[in-house]
Amino acid sequence: MGEVHELQLHKMEDAIAAKEIFSLEKNSLEDQIMKESNIINKKKINYFKVAIYVTLVLVGQSCATLLGRLYYEKGGKSKWMATFAQLAGFPILLPYYFFISSTKTITTKNKNNNIIDPNYQPSIFMLAFVYASIGLTVALNCYLFSIGLLYLPISTFTLICSSQLGFNALFAYFLNSLKVTPYIINSIVLLTISSSLLLFQSDSSNSTHVSKKMYLIGFICTLCSSAGCGLVLSITQLGFKKVVKKENFKAIMDMIIYPSIVATCATLLGLFASGEWNDIKKEMEEYEIGKASYVLVLTFIAISWKVFNLGCVGLIFEVSSLFSMAISVLGLPIVPILAVVFFKEKMNGIKVISMILAIWGFISYVYQQYLDESENKKENRNTSNVTKGSSTLEECNIRGFNLVPYV
After folding, report:
1. Cα separation of 35 and 22, whole Å?
2. Rounded to a whole number, what is the largest CA-CA distance in the chain?
3. What highest taxon heads this organism's lineage (predicted)?
């Protein structure tokens, strides 16, 4: 009887154990299903956010460039006012800055993806120097940008602006130790040829109706502004590496907002010092489509550029700076096409060839950035142990992020 009783006890214990195992497996399966469901929902939300940011980049970039041309087309003459409009919209970013800063917890990391001392604070003097240097350079770039937009057709202007990637690679080689690869060289050569071709086109396709001398001035100013843009991006990257030493959301937004304040103040000073401020009232009264339209055009130029900046920042944090740059590249063929529709510009053979070469150069540059980013991620996986469930921030490569309103 004792053996039978023990056997029954063993059977009961086995049954209870089996039931517990089944219950654990069931709970584990339910947890896994819940986790997968949450991951899918998060991906859907992320895709939706990315789609919004992509729209902001493309719409903001295209509208700002077209409105900038419209300002001149309908009677605007002040280059300093056009420059001010490009920069004065930075307060639009402030609500986004404070909202995300209060809701997004970000681990402070350096370029090698290593956590650094969270209490580290860069020198106030050095930060001010970096912000002021970048801000003044941006102001000069935007002024040259305005001159180019005044004297060149939008399609020509846009294609010349594409050369900023080549200049960026050149400055990054000297200032940021950029590794020169066949793809980078190919990109620089193609973008150089693309811009150079536009010097040989006939001015019969020029909707701005300017002389060859003014066309040449516009070409040189646009080329210089593109070079300045590449310099700003390289200096910015150098500032993050040597001074800021961290790349979280707040650091990047600070690098946008504070130089914007400096650039806006410098532009206002130029507006008053040049005497163009005295002609604004007359310019407004003589504007072809009315005073209200004059104010609205300038206002929407400012808003459009900051919408573009907002989309770029959003893509950096939702995907990567590489993706942000790649999306801004899509604006290259969009703006000339819209210029044909709204400003009746002609797309001659030279412009088409120039556009194809520029897109090819862009693709070559972006592909090299993709290879670099993939290699960095692979190295990080091999050299560091990542704890499950920990929150990480994707490394931001500043050289792919436009801080100034360029196509």
Report:
1. 20
2. 116
3. Eukaryota
Nearest-angstrom CA–CA distance, 365 and 358 = 11
Rg (CA), the chain: 27
The answer to whether residue 167 scores a pLDDT higher than 80 is yes
Most confident of the ranges 90-99, 121-130, 169-178, 331-340: 121-130
DSSP letters, 314-360, are: HHHHHT-HHHHHHHHHTHHHHHHHHHHHHH-----HHHHHHHHHHHH
Q: Half-sphere exposure of 143 toward its Cβ, with a 13 Å CA cutoff?
A: 16
Residue 375 lies in a domain: yes
Q: How many domains does the chain have?
A: 1
CA-nearest of 247, 245, 248 to 101 is 248
The answer to whether 69 and 149 are in contact (CB under 8 A) is yes
Residue 364 lies in a domain: yes
Give dist(CA 26, CA 13) in Å, integer. Answer: 20
Q: Measured between alpha carbons, how far is 272 from 168 in angstroms, rounded to an integer? A: 32
54 C-beta neighbours (distance < 10 Å), count: 20
Contact between 262 and 139 under an 8 Å Cβ cutoff? The reply is: yes
Q: For residues 75 and 87, give the distance between their C-alpha atoms in angstroms, rounded to a whole number.
A: 21
